[in-house]
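Researcher: Please predict.
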Amino acid sequence: MRINVLGERDVQPTAEQLAQMRTLVRQAMEQGAVGVTTALIYSPNEYAHTPELIALATESARCGGIYSAHMRSEGDRLLEAVQETVDIARASGGPAEIYHLKVAGRRNWDKIGALIAAVDKARAAGTRITADMYVYTAGATGLDAAMPPWALDGGLEAWIERLRDPKMRSRVIADMRDPKPSWENLFGAAGPDGTLLLAFKNPQLKPLTGKTLADVARMRGVSPEDAAVDLVIEDGSRVGVAYFLMSEDNIRREVVLPWVSFDSDEAAPAPEGIFLKSNSHPRAYGNFARVLAKYVREEKVLTLPQAIHKLAALPAATLALPDRGQLKNGYFADIVVFDPATIQDHATYERPHQLATGVDEVWVNGVRALRQGVATGAASGRAVHGRAWTGGGGGGCRASAHEWSWSP
């Protein structure tokens, strides 16, 4: 909504523009959306102030939808970001989802207890907050998350143009090296050895796939910051990277939380053809099997029923999807048959394009999609609609969020 109405600039909406954004949310909800979402560490979303987010979340809530947030900080200002999310949910009257919950950066790892306490307190007071997560210690995004918000103002082309300007480049690099930045610097938290290059657009840069930013800096005889700037200019893109930011101990604490479900936070590429020219994060192929193999079978952090609930019923309830997520009479037959003793993820950061094993049969909407581990090719998908969808002759948005019931 922000890009549609305001473009990619660091500007604030007028009252008229905010009303237009609210109208667009309402229209989208009645066309089948399940909620409104934002990613507040990325340009131009990070330019949005809390009142704007409350206004849009309120429209979503009036339509039976969720507010889903990649929070403003997962590191240095993590607890403030959690509080902002709670405030938005409380003010809107609807639920909020923290998407891919994490505590980023070694200096922030000890905030996990305070994070959990803040969410538990909000839930106990009646504000519905849930979260989802992937079970890896690295996140994946772009080199835009390594550079200051002012440099990104106006979008990709404006960003690259600034990087070409020697004075602007020097200012960007100085901000990247700031030990206490006022913005979410993932490169600063991960360091050059913890920044892994995954995806390039420029064929000449593809041989750098799988190397760290530190590796490239050494190869080129430049600083890691200069290497990052050069790669963005040369590739004409944000460049796909993985940042190693999280603690395995914190992941174990997070997976057992009753309000946390699991996500992949990735596309679903086939391990073939053009997809092999870039590396994805291993979560694309491994996250869900990894939950069952590592945290259920090997480490026994979760019981099998708990894990299945977090993989199926909880996310269906979080998104208010009716008749899904459980093996129940009258529900859509979405069924996965797997062997708990053998299910296993195989994707790694070095070799991510490896399918998990141990899943034998899958039915989607009652149609057999996988037989003895082989895709059938049968067309089994169905459109999923939010609760305000008017295409089925009903739904629509209400006068108040209180007219809807919220499940978990």
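Model: The longest strand covers residues 359-364.
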